[in-house]
Amino acid sequence: MRPPVLPVPRARRHTLHFLHHARTAAPVHLDAEADATALLAHRAAAARPVSVVTHVVHAVGRVLARHPDANATYAGGPRPRLVRYPWVDVKLTLDRVVDDTRVVLSSVLTDADRASRSFLQARITRLATTDPEDLPEFDGVRALRRLPHPAGRLAFAAASRTTRRHRHLGTVAVTSLGHRRVLRFFSHGGTAVTVGVGRITDRPVVRDGAVAIAPVLPLSLTFDHRVLDGAEAADVLDDLVETLGRAPTPEPTDAAR
Prior knowledge:
Layout: H1 13-22, E1 27-35, H2 37-45, H3 52-66, E2 72-76, E3 81-84, E4 90-98, E5 101-109, H4 117-129, H5 139-146, H6 149-159, H7 165-169, E6 172-176, E7 193-197, E8 201-207, E9 210-224, H8 230-245
Parallel strand pairs: 4-6, 6-7
Antiparallel strand pairs: 1-9, 2-3, 4-5, 7-9, 8-9
Pfam families: 2-oxoacid_dh (PF00198)
Protein name: 2-oxo acid dehydrogenase subunit E2
InterPro entries: 2-oxoacid_DH_actylTfrase, CAT-like_dom_sf
């Protein structure tokens, strides 16, 4: 008996187009762990707590603004060029169901270097809970779904040109598998830097020379070696770990806690 041969679901066509586009990168992978004690304490005390992913997106926005060489993209061409962005747009991946098919969708959270945690949480909640077919953010995905595969690939390439790339791919990407027992994973999100978020678990840590149990947040960072080198990428990851390890700065909405 031969196994059935089925076409790739239309709902996943945009992923194939993205993978074709992303294969030109030169990805290198790093990982680290952040002490999540202060982050979780802030969540527990907040009147309107935000998710761990929202805290990461908020921190990534601030960190990339401090590392402009990493907030860039490779433009290619006969004379290779780099485009450095004066803002930080975070591409966030989401696990959704479209046409009875589980797919990964992404949306760009603009100006994440200036947005508050509460504002980011409202946007992320809307993206995660509203039917994707009703969200204008996914108009492009629906358009790609309707096109024949070769035409869709061309359309994706046109939308990903340097002048428009940040609108569709962001200037940095954040992806999470922390809903399952995944500690770390490495993914290239089509940007110079992609941050992966694992599941927080209680782990032994050393504090003041003694072993203690603390919640630890695993983080991965994949960087495009065409845009930056390992030392700069390590600085970005270390800055992110330090930022997430500190108590979150108060926001106006924190006053009620």
